[in-house]
Amino acid sequence: MSMKKIKQTVLGLICSISLFSCTQEAKVSHDANTDECGLFAKGKKVTNDNFTGAVYLQPLIESDSLNQNNVGNVSFEPGARSKWHSHPAGQILLVTGGVGYYQEKGRSKVILRKGDVIKCPPNVPHWHGASADTAFYQVAITGREKGPTVWLEAVSDSVYLAGDR
């Protein structure tokens, strides 16, 4: 897929999210099958050991021979987070709600809020998840053309909480 096509796809997603995502002030009625913003289905609880805490995934686009990107809506309950991991072809995170964290190995933790966009470089170990007291919602766009996600060790509580107090 060309870089122009990827940029068009990401721009389209961002525009859609901007138009339809919830605001922090809004009290939106929704059922248990949608995330807090009501943007996409909440999905199913992740049951593997690649996460700490309750995380839900709703696949939106599966990679195939025409498009090598996976796109998924990921909902993290407060305190939930991924293990350290990397993506051979990189990843883009579009924050749709809540408060979350992102950290690359050797760098400081970054606080994420609705509207933030993170470009995870290829093969750089990182983790992301919800803050300790607020849920977090993201759309993850993951390139698959160079191989699957490489899962590493769990994020320790001391790393997770660093800089919070």
UniProtKB/TrEMBL annotation:
Recorded superkingdom: Bacteria
Alphabetical keyword list: Signal
Record-annotated Cupin type-2 domain positions: 74-134
Stored Pfam families: Cupin_2
InterPro entries attached to this UniProt entry: Cupin_2, HNL-like_cupin, RmlC-like_jellyroll, RmlC_Cupin_sf
PANTHER family linked to this entry: BLL4564 PROTEIN (PTHR43698:SF1), RIBD C-TERMINAL DOMAIN CONTAINING PROTEIN (PTHR43698)
Signal sequence, start to end: 1-26
Name of the protein: Cupin domain protein
